[in-house]
Amino acid sequence: MSPSFTKSHELFARAARVMPQGIYGHFTPVFTVPGSYPYFMERARGSHFWDVDGNEYIDYLCAYGPMILGYANDKVDDAYRRQAGLGSCCSIATRLSVDLAERVTSTIDGADWVMFAKNGADVTSMALMLARGYRKRAKIVLAEEGYHGTQAWAGTSTVGITPADRADILMVPWGDLDALRETVAAWKGQIAGAMFTPYHHPVFADQKLPGPSFWAEVRKLCDENGIVLIIDDVRAGWRLDLKGSAHHFGFRPDMACYSKGMANGYAISMLVGAEKLRVTASKAYMTGSFWMNAPEMAVALVCLDEMERMNVAGVVRELGEALTRGLRELSEAHGLKVSITGPAALPFMKFANETNFLRSQLFCGECAGRGVFFHPHHNWFLSAAHTKEDIAKTLEAADAGFRAVKERFGD
Ligand SMILES: Cc1ncc(COP(=O)(O)O)c(C=O)c1O
After folding, report:
1. pTM here?
2. Structural domains of the chain ordered from first start
3. Whose CA is nearest to atom 16 of ligand 1?
């Protein structure tokens, strides 16, 4: 039986009158398969959420990454409530900022200092400013199809963006060392920094992992040319290695950006950096009304402890391996070709023989109708709250999804 979305649709009609698009940004239902997905959630616990019509889902989006220990995690939420009772936003900083900074600098490989903020976009922007301030150069290298937020320099939107906003941004394909070398040579002495994600996680396309010598070569090129190497670990951070994704891939950036899983859904982000950038970071005036809020810091401390205690990176990798192995076996049994790319803890699946995503949409729509929430065009996320039973139920739904694709498309 198909789920009912009556309440979701009623709410959406109200939302559309008072908010642009009704639901905007990455929460927009535009990606979904019409009639297969809810628009509004009611509650969430563990790896599951329930929509406003009472339909239940095993969630493989994890709020697009932040949920890493499970929704409504008691330890996390107790830490928040406890600190909220003592104070949140105050006129001076709290000792929690010091406790958390000490914890972070002793955990993240190469982090000599840290600055806290709220969103991933806050810290990716800070990183570019500090690289420019440190090197006294303007140009920044980014990867094509990389995502660092919706700021004007990031090139995500076209509305209201002027050529000047991106005049100093140079683009290279992610992982293309020759293109990077050519760009560095062409703009010799003018590039302040290069910011990349630790592996390539574009939307609509296969993810790419770095080759064995890739990061060592990038590090060398940056050092030879005085370029500040920045890693945007906002999405992947904490799911590959507690010490940072750069540590996982065996290199040290000059700065790295974190958020998402850092506080299991509470709003906090951070920029960590190497000693050589400390003075520049001290001179820069960077702040926000809510950046020192205490409850999120209390949560981040608990979250770091929990991630370490539970070996979350290992847990999500194993769960991801079980899921992706099952999906590969099922697709093969149905005579379908899929490509599943990226780390097992953040996998992306597409049908290998299509470019229009109609198969993915049908597959994900069928899974959603059976209580499994996948995104057809974006990578998925595993959390420490997913269970073997979740994976088994998910594979049952996926079996039906693959069957529907086979019946509709034949291959
Ligand atoms: C790699 C990466 N960088 C930066 C951001 C921006 O983070 P935020 O949405 O918290 O501003 C995101 C968000 O998805 C991201 O995936």
Report:
1. 0.98
2. 6-69+311-409 (3.90.1150.10), 74-309 (3.40.640.10)
3. 235
